[in-house]
Amino acid sequence: MKNIKEHIKLNQFKPVYLLCGTEIYLKKLYRDKLKTAILGDGDQMNFSYFEGKGIDTAEVISVANTMPFFSDRRLILIENSGFFKNQSDLADYMSSIPETTHIVFVENEVDKRNRLYKAVKNAGIISEMNAMDEKNLKLWVATLLDKENKKITEDTILYLLNKIGSDMENIQNEVEKLICYAYDRDIITKDDVDEVCTAQITGKIFLMVDAIGSRQQKKALDLYYDLLSLKEKPMSILFLVTRQFNILVQVKNLLSLGYHNDVISQKTGLMPFTINKYVNQSKNFTMETLTKALNSCADIEERIKTGRLIDKIGLELLIVKYSSAT
Length: 326
Fold this sequence. Notes:
Layout: H1 2-10, E1 16-20, H2 24-39, E2 47-51, H3 57-64, E3 74-79, E4 101-106, H4 115-123, E5 125-128, H5 134-146, H6 154-164, H7 168-182, H8 190-196, H9 201-213, H10 217-229, H11 234-256, H12 261-268, H13 272-282, H14 287-305, H15 311-323
Helix pairs in contact: 5-7, 9-10, 9-11, 9-15, 10-15, 11-13, 11-14, 12-13, 14-15
């Protein structure tokens, strides 16, 4: 990202860019920044867009070889093409892109062994955009609020992130809701977060598993029915419950080996501000129970997919079984 910022500042660009990684917000942000910087506002005549599988590489090359019309530059934007997971004729073309043409790829998944990936690396810039670390995420939230003359404590930021997750696009939307809700007040509080911010499904799953571990069967079932009322599919819920149990197995195992929270965060990929929650939740289960729960999740998934169990009932059976386990 630092290189891209510098290129925009100097108004000097590489022939090709690849924006990849898990953070959708950052990829969209720098995609749009590059587009505006390369073409300026409103120049659609020299802009070409390709998306999805099955893009005709011959057409891309033909457009790339076309001189820009009343402009110094032409921009081609290619999104989610799958070119970086499979073989593509574009690999050999990367070293032949005309000086007047710039190509920006935006991809969810890439294979670093791929020929096109290596060709782009040689000819241009690859920027991997993944989730911010805790420090920068907190700073970003505070900055968003400061632009609107709103203040927030670090404790409230952590409370907000624990509720809504670390996806930057979602955070931006929730912060905008907080700004509107607070209106003429300067300080954003935890009560504001509770009033207007929507908990992510992963947060609801966490609470459901927490209720299971605390043997609060009614609460666990109520949370499950709430998810169903929000049109969440039982199989999607099962996937997230399985993921939650798997995380708890990892956390519990690392704790038993004597690792501290910061190391657990690094090894599991969990945000540091969430570790205490997972550590505390893992204490509600024995390793034996967690292992059995994971096996049960796999068994229920197999029975549902083979038509031997109704998906909604399968989840209910899982919740009942482990919310009453000893």
